[in-house]
């Protein structure tokens, strides 16, 4: 294996976590291991400078990235993250996980990801628009509806995607709705896209719970991260009768033994911008969240949240990875020894990329489906993927994560093998 000169040797970095996950699947790939270095080397990594004129007339510079990890099975697909802690290595890992995710779901995409080192909450709406448009122009030569299709991620939303689509369209001289997904519905977006990732967590969670004998109505659920993914999955489990007993976001941690009123919390969050100060639950210390008693944990924040110490302390029976890379490899080993089932991120949170695929297809055909049709197709694809991975895990006697990588890497490396090397 040839090491990359531009990555650190930090053991717990997102990229190191991804590489460790790849290493674990190699014994199950047979002759395809000849091509395994393909998985360790991003195809393309672009770093751009984004000069931005602020509202006060000053000029600030922001660092942006777009990484295309692998395009063997189709154009790149992956979100754009606006966050002050974004790094090239993080974006590389996220793009690699998108490669795996698309292959597990058997979608005709490769993996890509983008990011800008910025706190969007500190920008005015006009500054955010100017930042988005300049970033889009800087990466415009490597994105496109048949090259690489961005989507929303942490710190971005449908409005950001609308600006990206418009900027790209102006630069190429034609309205090109298929260049991004996650757009507003009236600009070629898909019904069901906003809740798709959280719905995918719920769908795979329900299927996994049934397989291990958990009755949802008797389950206590904890959700770490209450953004789009965490809030939607919490709402769906709440509607199905589960008790959401613990919730944590960047602003604080809540606990209520009898279960938190999710509709009331969502209303509070819309009015106050966070869950902090919610009066209908106990405010607890950050680390105390991990020590509470619950049956299902949904980590839906950022990567690297389930450490060895937290894995050793968890009381749950099932972990549903709503975030990308929330479990460190050493923690994975502890969870397996403790017989805690983990539905890995590359399946669990793949509802977003699945409905993004639907949106991309609808934009090409200019024919749009109902939300009911979208949800039916999403549920079917995700259930089929989970069954395939579960069967693979049982046949190989490995975790669901290693099984998911086995399924995905076989598809990715077979494509690489059959396409050959050019020139």
Automatic annotation (TrEMBL):
NAD(+) binds at residues 197, 228. InterPro entries: Aminoacid_DH-like_N_sf, Glu/Leu/Phe/Val/Trp_DH, Glu/Leu/Phe/Val/Trp_DH_C, Glu/Leu/Phe/Val/Trp_DH_dimer, Glu/Leu/Phe/Val_DH_AS, Glu_DH, NAD(P)-bd_dom_sf, NAD_bind_Glu_DH. Transmembrane segments: none annotated. The record marks 153 as: Important for catalysis. It comes from the Bacteria. One of its GO terms (molecular function) is nucleotide binding. One of its GO terms (biological process) is L-glutamate catabolic process. Catalyzes the reversible oxidative deamination of glutamate to alpha-ketoglutarate and ammonia. This is Glutamate dehydrogenase. It comes from Rouxiella silvae.
